[in-house]
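Design job #97: recover the sequence.
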């Protein structure tokens, strides 16, 4: 595990204080992250198990990491508090030019919905959705533009639905 990027820790508030205090007592915890962290994340992302950082750095890193796995359209996101859970796209890229054009990749929203169902202890339904999405992506026949294809949002969703229920529409 690694905590917050290096630099001026004053802006890190409690996260900086807790990380510095706890870093010595947790075996394998490094703090602060080595610089240049973004380059290391791109070159060898497997060296990091868990990254803990404030919101600003988190937003930067989640967008960078999304680019490593296909872009903002494929990464689900989750935020938790003591009372609430929010499920949304992992990378907050608005992709405004896609509005009304049926070209956006719905993977992030579908996987976010799957994660929400899992959080609500609806494991079977969660797995149905995530397995269907993975099957469509792995099949490679239905790909939106961001994944190098020409399929529309509707094409992708229809393919996911068809993979939820193999006999659907037959």
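Job complete. Output follows.
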């Amino acid at each position: 595990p690694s905590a917050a990027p290096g630099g001026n820790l004053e802006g890190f508030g409690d996260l900086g204080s807790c990380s510095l205090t706890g870093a010595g007592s947790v075996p394998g915890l490094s703090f602060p992250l080595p610089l240049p962290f973004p380059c290391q994340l791109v070159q060898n992302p497997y060296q990091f198990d868990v990254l803990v950082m404030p919101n600003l750095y988190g937003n930067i890193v989640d967008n960078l990491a999304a680019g490593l796995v296909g872009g903002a359209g494929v990464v689900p996101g989750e935020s938790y508090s003591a009372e609430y859970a929010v499920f949304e796209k992992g990378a907050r890229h608005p992709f405004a030019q896609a509005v009304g054009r049926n070209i956006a990749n719905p993977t992030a929203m579908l996987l976010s919905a799957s994660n929400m169902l899992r959080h609500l202890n609806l494991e079977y339904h969660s797995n149905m959705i995530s397995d269907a999405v993975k099957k469509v992506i792995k099949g490679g026949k239905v790909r939106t533009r961001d994944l190098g294809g020409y399929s529309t949002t509707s094409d992708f969703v229809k393919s996911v639905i068809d993979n939820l229920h193999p006999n659907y529409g037959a």
